[in-house]
Amino acid sequence: MSYLPTLLFDAGEQSNLFSPDQFAGYAVTAVITIFNILLVFIIFRLFFYKKVIKMINDRQAALDAELEAARQSREEAQKIVDSSKETIDDAKRKGSEIMEEAKANAEKQSKAVIDQANNEAQQIIERAEEDAERMKRNAFETMKDDIADLSVQIAGHIIGDAVSKEELKKSAAKHTEEILDKEVEKSE
Hints:
By secondary structure, the protein is mostly helical. The chain has one domain (17-187). It is built from 3 helices and no strands. It has helices spanning 3-14, 20-159, 165-187. Helix 2 (20-159) runs antiparallel to helix 3 (165-187). The longest helix has 140 residues, at 20-159. The radius of gyration is 67 Å and the shape is rod-shaped.
């Protein structure tokens, strides 16, 4: 029995990492690994390669389509922004034109209203002056008639019936008219 432990012990001492037995094991492991890799590659190539390539191409096509759609959306958005800016600029310009036109119209209307008011005021003043002049004439006429009547009555009482009442009226009217005309000329 003592032979068995020595065999195991002797075998363990002779074996190391770089021994031919170990190299043979490494070579077999390497060949099996290469064979497994080639087998997996062939199986992958036969069953999955076309599907994976198709999936990759589909994904690439979808990404390209999304990128194109995003580019078109960006271009459309830029067109809309440019159009909006133009619309805003046009609206500002038109608003400014409308404001200027409204201002000019308001000035014209205010000038027309002022001119009309001045004309109406001038007409009112002229009518008032005409009315005043007419009232003045009426008052002088009334006063003249009253003075003439009063003069005739006074002269009739003083002179009596020596001069006719009609001659007294004519004479009083003549003198009263001369006196009033002189007074009117002084007041003007």
